[in-house]
């Protein structure tokens, strides 16, 4: 039996589907998982799959040189454990690829440790979930460019395509691939929270049922809001429970779980001092959702969930348009915050990330793919140094011409009036309002800091730093 082009360790949701995708494209694959039944099942599903390996040694020997080994195991210590197990069998020039959601600092450390042994370590951000892995994911590559060249033909073949262009590219040195994927997930958190809040408003304030909301969202997903997350939301809103007569949504606990990438994005944004309040709000709202007992106890103090009811006549169809525009602008702001973080990180960590390429690989296959990413790509094509998407003349014009800001403000006013939690929308509004403020009260903060801590301040009329003797 010939040697395999690539080996995959971890044949769960992602590894299994990616293996099948790779096989479909004519590349040979060996698979390994600590759960042997997964290896056997995959071999049964695809006769071309080279398995079943009951030991790392046999698995390694089934691979052609340089050995290319892709991991899809849980992020964290398991990745280190897998590397430890492989090390005795690796040779100079071998290439390890971590396709999981690893923390970028871990990837940097692994790259340094393995470089001493002349082993390449690629951090590959992977998006698209189960179906993306099977039919075409979006792939964000970081690490040694030469090592990427060994994988390029395979990754271009298996990735999603948009107008013939593969949704895979080299993002930059070091952990750039995992960094871009982390920010992708931060944006994913933001958009999911916004869609959730929009649904909540439509349901609890406009008093629309799920059928009507799903029809509305379906219509929107054929317009400016065309995106994967809108599409799946339409399906979710229509899904019936197989254990009762009800909708599945009505049977599901209102606690949003998380594996950490959204919080990492927020922590990074704080660390690099890049404002990303919608992503912060999305993480906070997931955290708040998990405080079930506290929420229940506090809710006892109020007769109804909403502070006041607004008569239904207030909300005729034209208001639905306001809601759509508010969501659209807030989603634009979420992308703006993510790209702004990438722009800063690229400089700080010397990744040299090409933001146009990021938009290109996110247009297809990934969870945050949307029609709007074409405009984002255009913005970075026109100005690769653009520091914030809101400054792009075309995006600015669209916001102005459609009066998106007016709609967002109107939506937020109603949400506040009735007491509906809309933290992500309110964060989007504050973000824009702060950005369009030539003057902020930060002069007062400068003086407060100087007052209590002698931290000094800058003046608008004189160069240098100043301190006032306050008492
Ligand atoms: N699911 C998704 O939509 C996406 C996931 N990711 C990331 O991809 C990675 C994998 O995710 P996913 O496929 O969902 O996870 P799964 O849990 O479905 O699969 C992981 C597999 O790795 C196996 N495994 C665990 N430890 C070892 C080990 N030491 N040696 C060999 N195999 C091992 C697990 O076996 P066992 O179950 O017996 O522990 C399991 O079969 C994660 O980092 C995840 O965050 C990235 C993008 C999307
Ligand atoms: O990477 C992904 C999608 O892009 C994974 O599905 C990830 O698990 C999503 O994050 P979380 O589990 O925290 O919601």
Automatic annotation (TrEMBL):
Biological function: Catalyzes the oxidative decarboxylation of 6-phosphogluconate to ribulose 5-phosphate and CO(2), with concomitant reduction of NADP to NADPH.
Active site: 181, 188
The encoding gene: gnd
6-phosphogluconate dehydrogenase C-terminal domain residues: 177-471
Lineage: Bacteria, Pseudomonadati, Verrucomicrobiota, Methylacidiphilae, Methylacidiphilales
InterPro entries in the cross-refs: 6-PGluconate_DH-like_C_sf, 6PGD_dom2, 6PGDH_C, 6PGDH_Gnd/GntZ, 6PGDH_NADP-bd, NAD(P)-bd_dom_sf, Pgluconate_DH
Keyword annotations: Gluconate utilization, NADP, Oxidoreductase, Pentose shunt
Family designation: Belongs to the 6-phosphogluconate dehydrogenase family.
Pathway: Carbohydrate degradation; pentose phosphate pathway; D-ribulose 5-phosphate from D-glucose 6-phosphate (oxidative stage): step 3/3
One Pfam family this sequence matches: 6PGD
Name recorded for this polypeptide: 6-phosphogluconate dehydrogenase, decarboxylating
The organism's place on the tree of life at top rank: Bacteria
């Amino acid at each position: 039996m010939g040697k395999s082009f690539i080996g995959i360790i971890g044949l769960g949701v992602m590894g299994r589907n990616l293996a099948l995708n790779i096989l479909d494209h004519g590349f040979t694959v060996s698979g390994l998982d600590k759960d042997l039944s997964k290896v056997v099942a995959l071999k049964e599903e695809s006769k071309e799959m080279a398995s079943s390996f009951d030991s790392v040694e046999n698995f390694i020997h089934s691979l052609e040189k340089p050995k290319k080994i892709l991991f899809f195991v849980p992020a964290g210590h398991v990745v280190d454990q897998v590397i430890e197990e492989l090390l005795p069998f690796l040779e100079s020039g071998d290439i390890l690829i971590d396709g999981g959601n690893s923390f970028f600092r871990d990837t940097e450390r692994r790259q340094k440790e393995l470089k001493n042994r002349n082993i390449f370590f690629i951090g590959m951000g992977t998006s698209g979930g189960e179906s993306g892995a099977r039919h075409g994911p979006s792939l964000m590559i970081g690490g040694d460019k030469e090592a990427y060249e060994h994988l390029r033909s395979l990754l271009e073949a298996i990735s999603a395509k948009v107008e013939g262009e593969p949704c895979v590219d080299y993002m930059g040195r070091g952990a750039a691939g995992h960094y871009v994927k982390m920010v992708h997930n931060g944006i994913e958190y933001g958009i999911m929270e916004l869609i959730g809040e929009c649904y909540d408003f439509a349901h609890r304030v406009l008093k629309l049922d799920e059928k009507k909301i799903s029809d509305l969202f379906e219509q929107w997903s054929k317009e400016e809001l065309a995106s994967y997350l809108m599409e799946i939301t339409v399906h979710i809103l229509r899904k019936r429970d197989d254990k009762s007569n009800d909708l599945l949504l009505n049977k599901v606990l209102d606690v949003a779980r998380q594996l950490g990438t959204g919080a990492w994005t927020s922590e990074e944004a704080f660390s690099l001092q890049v404002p990303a309040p919608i992503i912060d709000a999305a993480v906070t709202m997931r955290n708040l959702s998990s405080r079930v007992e506290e929420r229940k106890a506090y809710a006892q103090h109020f007769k109804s969930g909403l502070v006041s009811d607004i008569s239904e006549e207030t909300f005729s169809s034209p208001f639905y348009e306001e809601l759509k525009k508010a969501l659209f602008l807030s989603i634009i702001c979420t992308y703006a915050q993510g790209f702004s973080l990438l722009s800063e990180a690229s400089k700080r960590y010397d990744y040299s990330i090409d933001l146009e390429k990021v938009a290109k690989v996110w247009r297809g296959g990934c969870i945050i793919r949307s029609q709007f990413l074409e405009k984002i790509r255009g913005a970075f094509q026109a100005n690769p140094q653009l520091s914030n998407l809101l400054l792009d003349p075309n995006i600015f014009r669209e916001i102005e011409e459609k009066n998106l800001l007016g709609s967002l403000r109107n939506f937020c006013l109603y949400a506040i009036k009735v007491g509906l939690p809309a933290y992500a929308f309110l964060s989007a509004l504050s973000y824009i309002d702060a950005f369009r403020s030539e003057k902020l009260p930060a002069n007062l903060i400068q003086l407060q800091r100087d007052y209590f801590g002698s931290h000094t301040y800058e003046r608008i009329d004189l160069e240098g730093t100043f301190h006032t003797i306050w008492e």
